[in-house]
Design a protein that fits this description.
heterodimer; A: mainly beta; 7-stranded mixed sheet; 4-stranded antiparallel sheet; 11 strands; globular; B: 6-stranded mixed sheet; about 0% helix
């Protein structure tokens, strides 16, 4: 049973380009969370999705950032017109269908985005 | 709002030393509490958790007790190893089900 798979592991983009980060949750998990980790900081919640629905996007920047979790395929975090301040590690976590808060979350290894 | 505060690192210890990493939280209600560990270049792994007051989470020699009276969840280990070198994150679960993390504490264990 593979864990949470994120790709790419490393992504370099020039300012103004688009970045697409993918997350495949654990088999059977239908809840996905995206977090951002700036250098030397903790993880900050961005968005919580279930299949085909955004449940909570209170941590997402209002512009340039979007997320989806389609019925088929991985969850995608999309950053348009990247700027240097977007450079960070982006982590995805999935949770089992019951969504119980007590179960904790399974994290992927992250995508490290560098904007040059 | 809800928050988690951890002691700043890095914490540098010799092998077999005793480890304490302090963590306190603020929350409405009674959150579940977690410790995660992040090894270099990897994602976070759940180390231990506690879901109610006075619960003790334990794993791999690490322990933490949920103290409601002091709103704390300090991480301890009696004898650290070089392989424990990593960044440790304290976290709480908020009502919206997303985790709120502390800023992390880097532990460096020297042989």
């Amino acid at each position: 049973n593979a864990g949470v798979m994120q790709n790419p592991r490393h992504l370099v983009r020039r300012r103004g380009q688009e970045a697409r980060l993918r997350c495949s949750p654990m088999k059977g998990h239908s809840h996905v969370y995206w977090y951002r980790q700036l250098p030397e900081e903790g993880l900050k919640f961005m968005v919580y999705l279930q299949k085909e629905n955004i449940i909570d996007e209170s941590g997402m920047p209002k512009e340039r950032f979007s997320a989806e979790f389609p019925k088929e395929g991985p969850s995608i975090l999309r950053i348009q017109q990247v700027v240097r301040g977007d450079s960070a590690a982006y982590f995805c976590a999935s949770q089992d269908p019951t969504g119980s808060a007590n179960y904790g979350y399974t994290f992927g290894s992250g995508t490290r985005l560098t904007v040059v | 709002g809800n928050s988690v505060t951890q002691m700043e690192g890095p914490v540098t210890l010799s092998e077999e030393a005793f480890l304490t990493i302090n963590c306190t939280y603020t929350a409405t209600g009674y959150p579940s509490l977690f410790w995660y560990v992040q090894y270099p270049g990897e994602g976070l792994q759940l180390l231990l958790k506690a879901t109610k007051a006075d619960d003790k989470g334990s794993n791999k020699g690490f322990e933490a007790t949920y103290r409601k009276e002091t709103t704390s969840f300090h991480l301890e280990k009696g004898s650290v190893q070089v392989s424990d070198s990593a960044v440790y994150f304290c976290a709480q679960h908020t009502g919206r089900r997303a985790l709120t993390f502390g800023s992390g504490t880097r532990l460096q264990v020297q042989p």
